[in-house]
């Protein structure tokens, strides 16, 4: 190893420890920085390894403090990694075989090299090859760690640059139709990556595409159109209709890589906070009969979100998510509400039968005359079936008219108002999210008095 190579290695080592040796650190800060630096992978000069351990970083710090930058240069004998008994091209091939399949044993690699006639049988020694591979970090554990656990942190440059969307199976509510039964409530969330501000979050009884789209639509109505939507690769995010909505709105749709959930750390952290702060208190109110329906749950959750989350200082940027979002001066891209509604309409293709009717979601509709046997495209809002648009060849025809009215499945699923059960004896009579809700109501009253726009009604709250 020549002097130029040794200096390049010293520069790399100093770059690693510079945050540790160039300023005075608070107690405990050094340990946190060491762990953070050791978390990442690096292109280490003249080495095939990618990671640096905490112990190695401590050794670099000690050398630097005792001998300065020169002490970070490797010794002239650092070329000891070069095997004196294995030819370089043979060792390179062995490394490639191990990288290709980390589960290959040293014996298997030797067998491959012998069968492929890179070496003569018996020429390689297992202990020698094993030693050389270990020195270069070519072990199963190290290779799998590099492949699976090395990530780069990401944060959007400004508000609405990236919204992360996800669904959590949060808690159980009393079943709206089956007395004594419970039903899962799913929390659908869209979170602004730059500020961690939740642009909209809502509980639903189903984890389906229309619920996801409804949440996104409400978020856009309040906070504009994002540049990118970063979502899971599950079925509801991979629907053709969701992709079409994003395309029409000019939103780049990006999915998490399969089996790589680590890119969704911000969402997971938010869900952990929901589990820790909201869920236990919500179950307490469910037992008291104060939360019995989705309407009740979403009412308390909106207050909790505004007071307990949006007004809580975030550890990463030392600001409240609401402040960080609103103080960003990046322009917000808006769309008129009527145009947005058109974009979110569901689309179905139907063939008009001999009675000049089509069937949609269990209900028969009559279309304008002259379409018998023709295929038409229907556009509709699943939450408001009063208007069914009929399209053919990119031209809108007369809207379909109900021919036979049948109750929609979701129309039957109305919340049953249950009598408030007798409250169980409480030790303190205090509940966190109930108190949060009261504080939220007080804040809204003060904003009204000061002439500010009502957050809940003005499209700026969750």
UniProtKB/TrEMBL annotation:
Question: Which segments constitute the Integrase catalytic domain?
Answer: 153-329
> Which GO molecular-function terms appear in the entry?
nucleic acid binding
InterPro entries the UniProt entry points to: Homeodomain-like_sf, Integrase_cat-core, RNaseH-like_sf, RNaseH_sf, Transposase-like_Mu_C
The record's annotation in Gene3D superfamilies points to: Ribonuclease H-like superfamily/Ribonuclease H
> A single GO BP annotation from the record?
DNA integration
Pfam families referenced in this protein's UniProt entry, alphabetically: Mu-transpos_C, rve
Protein name per UniProt: Integrase catalytic domain-containing protein
What is the species of this protein?
A: Heyndrickxia sporothermodurans
């Amino acid at each position: 190893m020549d002097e130029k190579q040794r200096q390049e290695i010293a520069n790399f080592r100093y770059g690693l420890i510079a945050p540790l040796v160039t300023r005075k650190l608070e107690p405990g800060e050094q340990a946190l920085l060491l762990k953070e630096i050791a978390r990442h992978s690096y292109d280490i000069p003249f080495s095939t390894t990618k990671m640096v351990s905490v112990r190695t970083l401590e050794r670099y710090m000690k050398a630097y403090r005792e001998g300065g930058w020169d002490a970070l240069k490797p010794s002239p004998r650092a070329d000891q990694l070069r095997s004196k008994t294995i030819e370089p091209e043979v060792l390179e091939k062995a490394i490639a075989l191990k990288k290709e399949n980390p589960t290959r044993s040293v014996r298997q690699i030797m067998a491959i090299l012998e069968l492929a006639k890179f070496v003569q049988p018996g020429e390689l020694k297992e202990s020698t090859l094993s030693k050389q591979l270990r020195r270069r970090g070519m072990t199963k554990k190290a290779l799998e760690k590099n492949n699976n656990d090395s990530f780069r942190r990401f944060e959007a440059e400004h508000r609405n640059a990236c919204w992360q969307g996800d669904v959590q199976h949060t808690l159980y509510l009393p079943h709206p139709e089956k007395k004594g039964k419970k039903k899962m409530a799913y929390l659908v969330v869209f979170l602004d990556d730059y500020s961690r501000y939740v642009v909209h979050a809502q509980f639903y009884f189903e984890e389906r595409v229309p619920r996801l789209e409804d949440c996104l639509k409400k978020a856009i109505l309040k906070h504009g159109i994002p540049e990118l939507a970063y979502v899971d690769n599950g079925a509801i995010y991979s629907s053709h209709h969701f992709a079409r909505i994003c395309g029409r709105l000019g939103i780049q749709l990006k999915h998490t890589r399969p089996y790589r959930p680590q890119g969704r750390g911000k969402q997971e952290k938010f869900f952990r906070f929901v589990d820790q702060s909201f869920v236990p208190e919500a179950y307490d109110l469910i037992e008291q009969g104060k939360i019995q329906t989705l309407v009740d749950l979403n009412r308390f959750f909106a207050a909790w979100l505004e007071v307990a989350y949006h007004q809580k200082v975030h550890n990463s940027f030392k600001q409240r998510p609401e402040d960080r979002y609103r103080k960003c001066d990046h322009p917000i891209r808006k769309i008129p509400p009527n145009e947005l509604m058109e974009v979110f309409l569901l689309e179905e293709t139907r063939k008009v039968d001999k009675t000049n009717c089509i069937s949609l979601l269990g209900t028969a509709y009559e279309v304008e005359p002259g379409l018998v046997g023709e295929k038409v495209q229907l556009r509709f809002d699943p939450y408001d079936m009063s208007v069914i648009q009929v399209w053919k060849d990119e031209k809108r025809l007369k809207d379909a008219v109900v021919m036979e009215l049948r109750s929609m499945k979701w129309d039957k699923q109305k919340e049953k108002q249950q009598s408030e059960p007798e409250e169980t004896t409480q030790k303190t009579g205090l509940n966190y999210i109930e108190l949060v809700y009261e504080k939220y109501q007080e804040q809204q009253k003060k904003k009204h008095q000061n002439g500010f726009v009502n957050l809940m009604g003005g499209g700026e709250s969750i």
